[in-house]
Amino acid sequence: MGDLKYTRALLKLSGEVLAGEKGSGIDFDLTERICRHVIECVQAGAQLGIVIGGGNFWRGRSSGSMDAVRADKMGMLAIMMNALALEDTFEQLGQPAQVQSACVMPQVAGCIDKRQALQAMAGGKVVIFGGGTGNPFFTTDSAAALRAAEIEAEVVLKATNVDGIYDSDPRVNPGAKKYDVLTHDVILEKRLNVMDATCAALCRDKRIPMLVFNLNEPGNILRALQGENVGTLVKLDS
Fold first, then answer.
1. For the chain, how many structural domains are there in total?
2. Which structural domain range is residue 109 located in?
3. For residue 1, is it within any domain?
4. What is the pLDDT of residues 50-74, one digit of tens each?
5. Are 87 and 191 in contact, with CB atoms under 8 Å apart?
6. Is 101 domain-assigned?
């Protein structure tokens, strides 16, 4: 097993990835496979935090005429459901895990605390950051960048269903060009939709590289931590 290039990382998972082909809810067999890949990384010496989305239960942007703030608060609750599902799956597999919440809900999880998170990760726990940023109008991509900055992560790993960043949607345009390497500024200038502008800008300002890769390929999380360019690397300088 190769040495790790990145020891402390923030893994961003969409809520939809937990649903798999079901399209909604949680596919627990798939969730277990994802957790096993994460455990492989912890056993290799990585310290991992996870930010999960909630789109498999609720997407605020699809809430029609509902008040946007209220819709986003519902999204935060959906995220917490996924965070708890991940925590339970890890623990069933024998991997210590801890949920921290951006929303105050003491009966469910403790509040996000940098010192506790760092101590937990150093002790071999996977820390799952739930509740998004705790504020409306921010995506879980922004939450991932924020938590990565807080825990001083060396990289943000954005796991997706495609093998990197393209200049257009490869599912629609067969001629779409894949980037192997690009900068945060290019993402912002070209308005590439792989992540929101707040996420790209914060990672740029905090000098945190990002790697966008396909989660469906077994072993990709570990290979990403080992420094293999398994997708698209986003860095400060081209």
1. 1
2. 8-235
3. no
4. 999 999 999 766 667 889 999 999 9
5. no
6. yes
Evaluated on CA atoms 91, 213, 22, 99, the torsion sign reads: positive
How far, in Å, are 49, 57, 60, 235 from residue 30 at the CA level?
Answer: 19, 16, 25, 31
The CA-based angle 75-59-136, given to 5 degrees, is: 45
Task: Please count the other Cβ atoms lying within 10 Å of the Cβ belonging to residue 86.
Answer: 24
| Amino acid type, 59 | R
The reply to whether 2 falls in a domain is no
Give me the residues paired with residue 13 across strands: 52
CATH of the domain at 86: 3.40.1160.10
The token duo for 181 is: 């390497």
- 0.85 cut: is pTM over it? yes
Instruction: Scan for tokens 């990384």, then name that residue.
Output: 41
- Amino acid at site 6: Y
* DSSP string over 38-103: HHHHHHTT-EEEEEE--TTT--GGG-TTS-HHHHHHHHHHHHHHHHHHHHHHHHHTT--EEEEESS
Rg (CA), the chain: 17
Q: What is the pLDDT of residue 61?
A: 64
The Cα 99–Cα 84 span in angstroms is 7
